[in-house]
Amino acid sequence: MNLIKNTIGHFKTVIIHKYWVFKYAKKIGIPWQGLIHDLSKFSWTEFSESVKFYQEGKSSPIVAAKK
Hints:
- The chain is built from four helices and no strands.
- It is mainly alpha-helical.
- The longest helix is centred in the N-terminal third of the chain and has 25 residues, at 3-27.
């Protein structure tokens, strides 16, 4: 497992997800909800667990963690 590669990859994935959620939330008139959506993904507990099970865009790290 490459910790640095997984950390960067997961961070990029979350940022891209947040970008699209904000873009579409703004479009329908709820920009604040779009901005705060999934902020928990940056908490140490959730972020570190997701980095550990990062799947390089193949599937959710949450699914891998549950297995």
